[in-house]
Amino acid sequence: MAVLPTQQELHASFPLLWPSWLCEMLPARARCLVDRQEVRCHEQWERTLASGVSLDEEEYTRAWLLVNSRTFYNGSSLTEGYPWEERLALIPLADLFNHSREAGCSVNFSDEGYVVTAVRGNDPGEEMYISYGDYSNDYILAEYGFAVEGRDDEEMICLNDVVFPKARALGLPSSHDGGPVGEYAIDANNGQPCDDLTRNMPRDLREDGGAKDLLEELLQFVKDRINDLAS
């Protein structure tokens, strides 16, 4: 517990704990991420209360952030049947590794556990880093409470502002902020999606044959917008 951030440090670092006037100054994509965090955390707090546990929401939110920012993906044969959000695990000591895009360690996992391996020589006392993923600073700030110096987020173009209205017009189920689940961004250098666009679609749409036409129309719209921006 002694190595965990203090209450004051959490409030200074994580936008989810910031006052609303300060959150309004965040870039649109970061605000979207924080808004969704707020809804997800509140829903989970309500389920916790329903189980008979009495816990102040602010106290729960701080604990939620500590866990959310320290979990590791555990995709093994033991968890492959679980939903994605249930394949996350806390690993003692591993959460002490900080993030760097030029990580000096590789991370691998299997049914037996996690293995962190140095990929180069290190001097005594030198800090060793792992990579949390190739994320934008918007995502890193919302999820981990910091930003990477020198990160060029202009490499990513967010399409949420054009995708969400189209999704609503098609009658697709909306999240609390009026858009489908997920983030829609492209690489500004080559116009290619930064992620699998279909993964960001609500699960019931991906699995419901009756929604296939709507899904394909939205995906075609996204691809057309990508081509427009890349040309």
UniProtKB/TrEMBL annotation:
InterPro entries cross-referenced by the UniProt entry: SET_dom, SET_dom_sf, SETD3_SETD6_MTase
GO molecular function: protein-lysine N-methyltransferase activity
Cross-referenced Pfam families: SET (PF00856)
Domain SET per the UniProt entry, residue ranges: 33-133
PANTHER family membership: SET DOMAIN-CONTAINING PROTEIN, UNCHARACTERIZED PUTATIVE METHYLTRANSFERASE
Name listed for the protein in its UniProt record: SET protein
Organism: Geosmithia morbida
